[in-house]
Structures are given as C-alpha cells and as structure tokens.
Amino acid sequence: MALDENIVVLIGGVGGAKLALGLAQVVAAERLTFIVNTGDDFWHLGLKICPDLDTLMYTLSGLVDPETGWGRANDSTAALQSLATNYGFEPWFRLGDKDLATHLVRTDLLRRGHTLTDATACLTERLGIRSRLLPMTDAEMPTIIETKDHGALGFQEYFVRHRWQPIVTSIKHKDCRLAQLTTAARHALRNADIVLIAPSNPWLSLAPILAVPGLRAFLAGLPLPIVAVTPIIGGAAVKGPTAKIMSELNIEISAASVANFYRNMISGFVDDCRNEAFTANGLRILRADTLMTDLSAKTRLAREILAWIKGWTR
Amino acid sequence: MALDENIVVLIGGVGGAKLALGLAQVVAAERLTFIVNTGDDFWHLGLKICPDLDTLMYTLSGLVDPETGWGRANDSTAALQSLATNYGFEPWFRLGDKDLATHLVRTDLLRRGHTLTDATACLTERLGIRSRLLPMTDAEMPTIIETKDHGALGFQEYFVRHRWQPIVTSIKHKDCRLAQLTTAARHALRNADIVLIAPSNPWLSLAPILAVPGLRAFLAGLPLPIVAVTPIIGGAAVKGPTAKIMSELNIEISAASVANFYRNMISGFVDDCRNEAFTANGLRILRADTLMTDLSAKTRLAREILAWIKGWTR
C-alpha cells in the first residue's frame, strides 16, 4: 500500500502526539502536516512557551521524556531552582534547562519579528523534523478556562498550577476575532487528501483550533475525508481532564459525545473497540484498538486508520 | 575606627569585585554604593546580559564561582549545550543554567518597562545584598573595540569570543550622547564622603563609566577624596588584558600611567608596593600590598585605604 496522500492532522499535546508518532512511521515525513493548538501558549518570565508545539517537536525528534510524554528526556532544572531559591519565583511551571533552549530560541525569533509559524519552522528544521508543524494561528489566542471557584484562569494556571482540579463552567478563546488561519495552514489544507483530528482533548485542545476564524468554513468546503479519533477509551479518558470536563459541562462521557462534538465536520470517526458501539447519521465508524501503549501500537493504529480511509474511495 | 562614611565605588568586573568584597567586610553595607560599568552589557539570544553587574552581585552574595571569579559556583550548562547541539548555536558565551535565572528575571523586568537601575535593585534585594549596585547609566552604551585585524567588535566578541587577542587600536562608547548619569547615581555621589575607583581595567571598565555624559564634571564639583587603586602590580596586570591594551595603545605599562589616566580627577592613588615608586604633582600616594589573594588580604587592603584617606582630614 503506497501512502502517498498528503495528510493534515489537527492536534493538541501528549495524547495527539502518540498518533503523530505512529503516522510518522507509515507516511513520508514530507506528506505530514500538523496544525497545532496554540491556545495553551503563554508568556512566562518573558519567554513564549508553546506546550503543544513543544510536545510534538520533542516527540517527533525523539527528544521527548518517555516517562511524561512532554518535556525533554533527562532534563535538569538548575535554572528553575535558582529562580525559586534565589529570586523567589514560585516554580509552578516546570522549565527544564534543555527545554529552556527551545523557549529562548523561539522567543528571540518572535522578538525579532518572525511569526510563530516561521519560528516553528526554524526550530523543527534544526531538530531534523521534516514534517511541517504549523501553529493554528500566528496571533495570540489564549484559551481561558472559566471555573466555578477560581474565576477565569489562563490555560496553564488551570492545567498546571491548579492541576486541572477547578470545576470548569465554560471555555473561551480570547481575542478570537483578531486571529486568522495562517497562509501556511490554508495551503496545507488545500493540498490535503485526508484531514485527521487527533485523539486530543476536544474541548481543551481541538476547540481552540476550530475557533480560529475561518477554519470551520474552510474545512467544510474541502471535498476530502475528515476523520476524528476518539480520546475516550473504555468510557474514560486515558489521561488528563477530558472525562472530568465532559462531566462538568454536562456532556455524557462517551465516544458518541465526542463524535457529536465534531458533527457536521467529520465524515469518519475512529472509535475504540472497548467503547459501547454507536451509530450516527451518515458517519463512517471504524472500531479499533486506539490505546497506543507502545510504538508498534501507534504505528498499527495509524496504518489501520489510513487503510480504512483509502478503502472508502476504492 | 568608626567607618561611617558613605563610600561610592566606580567599578568593573572581576578585579574590582575583589576590593568590593574587602570593603563589604569593613563598611556597613548600607554605606556602600557601587556605580558599575555597563559597557560590557549585551543582548544575547534575547537576554540582557550585564557581566560586571552579575560578577559584583554574585561576589557580594557569595554565589560566585570561586575558581573564575565570575559566574555562579557549581553551575551546569544544560541549556547552553542544547542550544549548541539541538539548535546549532555557537556556544562562545558561557551561559550557566543557574546564571540564566538572573538573565531571565532581569530581561523580563526590562521588557516590562523597568529601568536597569530598578531591575538591578530588584535582583540585589532578592539576593540579600544590602549595598546599592547602580548601573552607570540606564541607557545602552556598549563599548566598541576597534581592532587592527577584526574591525569594530562588540565588547563580548572581543573579550570572550576572541579571548582579547585582537590588537586594539581604539575604544569607543556607542550612543554616548543619549546616555546620562542616573538620578540614583547622582544622589549617591552627592551623599558620598569618599569615591573610590576600583582596580579594574581603566580603559575597558572605567573609561565607559567616565564617558557617561556629565559624570566627570559632576565628580569634579564634589569636594571629597577621590582615590584610584592600581590594577598594575609588579609592572603587569594581575589577570586580563590591561597591560596588553596599554602596550597596544602605546602607553607605558606602569601604575604612573594609570594615575595619569585619572589625572585631574583623583586626589589620591593607591599604588602597589611592588611597583617602581613615582610621584605626581599634588597627588597623594599610598603604597600598599594590593594583590588581593584571599579574603583577609582584601579586607586588610580595604581597611588600609580607608584609614589612609581618613588621615588626610585629621
């Protein structure tokens, strides 16, 4: 089976990166483009930090910490410890020393007037990544988490500082009107044969991407398969706050709810074989083992999804 | 002997920091103010780096690397190594991981609109330093080294990248007209009882301070002892390029030449007992052991200089 399609993946952080790594095993790197959530991005100590871009970069370049799925392997925290000990900074956001190199290079490029798209291209090129990683927008469009007891929180405050424990009442995307889909993302989508939606958190990681003005309409006009992969496995989230947030937003915790979240947008849905089967009007559903425990499982799932989609047009 | 004078020290990096540490042993911290050379400052990877301020901060807070006299003790270089290995940056300027914490905090404060004077006050306060460290100016006034074979070099390019090997033809201070003495420095000088000129490199470290518009005239109007300490010991520099530069600028390598460099400005000069004795019209000269090999030697020299100056007015 020749996999010569151009594939664009809408993607968040750790969960999505697993599928990204699988895809990278079965598709030529040049044919893979990732449009990455930047709603988690923030400025911290004067550094621009892009957690989802970093996770994907580190995963695809083999630098990622295999224990956590984010950050750099074998990283130290001498700078962070000095910030805390000598300068009284609360070290709630982990900044590894090696990781700092990424933030420094990116921030310097942005300060010199480069877009985040260009800065990311520079970083990925240096890391030897031949797939394209595109931020969903070059504008700042931070995700704001409205919570029951802590008011409005920036994403990292919610996710890292408060360990996603506050009860979410709604999720907003700031300065949304000023953001726009980048030329590079538009170009990638126009040349795509398949669009995948990674098994990232739909509300925290995909919703920000889909909130970029023009993206939903642009996707709707593309005559190609758009397929989402469930982040819900066995009626629960593999890791992180997906199920918790669904519960707080009064959404039934099921793959069907996720498919419903993407309704009118997707033509196919990859469900996990552990979930209760469901159907939806006009939606093709592949039931597969989506628990990507190791590289071979990631690769197998990527291959299975692509073969399934190819089958549609045979 | 009660040392209740207010002392202002014009000072550069490693050499001067030795005397600073000695003074800190014999004078109440609140009575000591350092006006520090910022001609060596530069922007590197988006970070504002102030080598002389850092050296003095680390020395006075006890964090300095005792081997080098600059940088932090027991520092690692994981970030720098990642910058080199992963992102292709030439690691010519050593950035320690702990050291990075300082650069990050300072840069963040500057980006938020604070002056270098305020940023330095914030850093020193966090480090528990009760003496005042004042940059010579809040403007950027980088020292430019004109060289025979490499053209004009930024200070750190000359000093670190080229290990002060290029032949110096002249030394310039960029954007000098826009710089001015800060209110804090002016206030400290107005309240000073004694001004010391540390045994730093006169041409590389003191000349930039003296080039700050208004400083020389301001000093000339102060009715108080101004005393310089020789950086030349036994007819040579203890360390660094002082003697080499004097030779390249066709200046005789002697303490007398240093005293002559400060002529019309100083009322006293501390010469090293190893140097050939000299006299200069109207200049009081103390001959002392100025080789500050350990803390007791630093303390002894500081005490001897201050006692000598006090004797003038008895």
Task: Characterise the protein shown here.
Two copies of one chain form a homodimer. With 314 residues, chain A is α/β, with parallel strands linked by helices. Chain A is built from twelve helices and 14 strands. The radius of gyration of chain A is 19 Å and the shape is globular. The first copy, chain A, starts with 6 loop residues before the first strand and ends with a helix. The model of chain A has no long low-confidence stretch (mean pLDDT 94). Chain A binds chain B through residues 45-47, 63, 72, 75-76, 78-83, 86-89, 96-98, 100-102, 104-105, 107-108, 111, 123, 126-127, and chain B through 45-47, 63, 72, 75-76, 78-83, 86-89, 96-98, 100-102, 104-105, 107-108, 111, 123, 126-127.
Structural class of chain A: alpha/beta
Percent in strands of chain A = 15-25%
Mind describing the biggest β-sheet of chain A?
A: 7 strands, parallel
Q: Which spans of chain A of ≥5 residues are poorly predicted at pLDDT below 50? A: none
Assembly type of the shown chains? homodimer
Number of domains of chain A: 1
CATH-defined superfamily of chain A: CofD-like domains
> What is the average per-residue confidence, as pLDDT of chain A, rounded to a whole number?
94
**Terminal residue distance of chain A:** 12 Å
Q: Determine Rg of chain A (CA atoms, Å).
A: 19 Å
Overall, the morphology of chain A is globular
